[in-house]
Design brief:
By secondary structure, the chain is α/β, with parallel strands linked by helices. The strands form 2 sheets. The protein has a 5-stranded mixed beta sheet. It has a two-stranded antiparallel ribbon with strand order 6-7. The radius of gyration is 29 Å and the shape is globular. The protein is built from 17 helices and 7 strands. It has 3 domains: 9-131, Nucleotidyltransferase, domain 5, CATH 3.30.420.40; 137-269, Helix Hairpins; 277-432, no CATH class. It starts with 8 loop residues before the first strand and ends with a helix.
């Protein structure tokens, strides 16, 4: 049962520019008709005055609830928290699962606000009552980084496709056609004719400067460029308008690279700022001790999951990241083709997927990045698909993350048998004590 059953309740249905507010009295009756507040100082102050009136009338603290609606609820939630009111955020999935409670099919903002108030008054639902501005800023920067990276990847693919039409063999010269060396060559010499008519020393100089490799590398690349340009004169589609598009794509990619550098620099500045919580910085450093987790991945995971104290068990963190299996059962039927729920943070899940891929790989010297997980993957995933294996690895990584953050200790790679032995010894010692 909810702990707010005997309290006055405010349910708020949040939109982009305004919100609809419904109020329930302590006995559950509708206190007054739902009303609208605009998302400005006047509207927020009007809501505050209404909360104060209700609290004075019933001589008790009121509780205010709203859905997590992307960014639209943040300013109102932050305002109420700063004013000292009991404000809480609930997951929209909770209200969606209760939307068909009435026989009539009615869907409007007033009904939604009232539904939020009733759910939170009578049901024991998961609530969030904290808002960390610094963590939110870090999450915003991290998500902007991924957005820019994804958009840049789209243009990289476009550039690669265009080169296959206009300059067919160019993609075989550079492993990455959007590397600094490749982009500099293309920007200065976009057409095969430009490369054939250019001064050899100028191209060699670009190759040496941008790649920072020796003259042998530069000479080899130059000879391949000349051959590719000669071939493109015969088999390439050398239409002037297409080369204008090529230059446009190059400029856009460089612009995105510049913006990504700015975002990364701002993340670094934020983490080193004197006002930024040292506990978050410490958590990031702890995650970096887990093999396969780099700085960006550690920042991503911490900014997405927030305070580890919000999760009492590893399986709660697994569910938050959307890695828990869906269940499909009815009567004697039990579905066997069940997928992960994917109801959690997709950015955090994406970061974990990258870590799982890294943990089942080896370094150039043949040494495993994470020998325990690689051995687990090889011995236990026979006959199963790669995705199933990676999900299992992601589950283990989440357990590692939970343990490291809970215990505030750096990660140690241990043989599973040794780990089980230590666990049993600690358990027996605890029983004796």
């Amino acid at each position: 049962m909810s702990k707010f059953t005997d309290k006055p309740i405010f349910g708020i249905d949040v939109a982009a520019d305004f919100s609809i507010v419904a109020i329930l009295a302590p006995n559950g009756d509708i206190y007054r008709k739902p009303f609208r507040i605009n998302h400005n100082l006047k509207g927020f102050n009007h809501l505050v005055s209404e909360i104060e009136k209700v609290e004075k009338k019933f001589n008790m603290k009121a509780a205010t609830f709203m859905e997590s609606t992307g960014i639209y609820h943040l300013s109102l939630f932050h305002y109420l928290i700063n004013k000292g009111f009991d404000a809480f955020v609930i997951n929209p999935l909770i209200t969606n699962s209760n939307k068909n409670s009435d026989i009539r099919k009615v869907k409007n903002d007033k009904k939604d606000a009232l539904n939020i108030a009733k759910i939170c008054k009578y049901q024991n639902v998961k609530l969030s009552s904290s808002f960390d501005i610094d963590l939110y800023a870090l999450k915003s920067l991290e998500r902007e980084y991924y957005k820019l990276t994804d958009t840049k990847s789209t243009y990289k693919k476009k550039l690669s496709n265009d080169l296959r039409i206009m300059f067919p063999d160019y993609c075989n010269i550079f492993s990455d056609v959007t590397s600094k060396t490749s982009l500099e060559i293309l920007q200065n010499y976009p057409k095969p004719d430009d490369i054939l008519s250019a001064d050899k020393n100028e191209i060699i100089n670009i190759l040496l400067t941008q790649s920072r490799k020796g003259i042998k590398y530069a000479e080899d690349k130059y000879s391949k460029l000349i051959q590719a340009a000669k071939d493109a004169k015969i088999i390439g589609i050398c239409q002037p308008s297409l080369f204008a598009k090529l230059i446009s794509d190059i400029n856009i990619i460089k612009s995105f690279e510049s913006q990504i550098e700015i975002i990364l620099s701002e993340i670094k500045n934020l983490l080193s700022a004197p006002y930024f919580p040292q506990s978050i910085v410490n958590d990031i450093e702890l995650l970096k001790t887990i093999p396969g987790i780099g700085e960006i991945t550690a920042i991503t995971i911490i900014s997405e999951i927030g305070d580890i104290k919000n999760f009492t068990k590893p399986k709660h963190l697994v569910a938050f990241l959307g890695l828990d299996p869906s269940v499909n059962e009815s009567g004697k039927f039990k579905g066997s083709n069940n997928h992960i729920s994917k109801r959690g943070t997709h950015i955090g899940r994406r970061a974990l997927y990258a870590v799982a891929l890294a943990c089942i790989r080896k370094k150039r010297n043949g040494q495993a990045i994470h020998p325990v997980l690689l051995n687990y993957y090889k011995t236990n995933m026979n006959g199963k698909s790669k995705k199933v294996g990676l999900i299992a690895i992601m589950h283990k990584i989440v357990n590692y993350i939970f343990a490291v953050l809970r215990d505030q200790k750096p990660y140690e790679i241990r043989d599973p048998k040794l780990h089980c032995k230590m666990f049993l010894e600690n358990k027996s010692t605890a029983k004796i004590a």
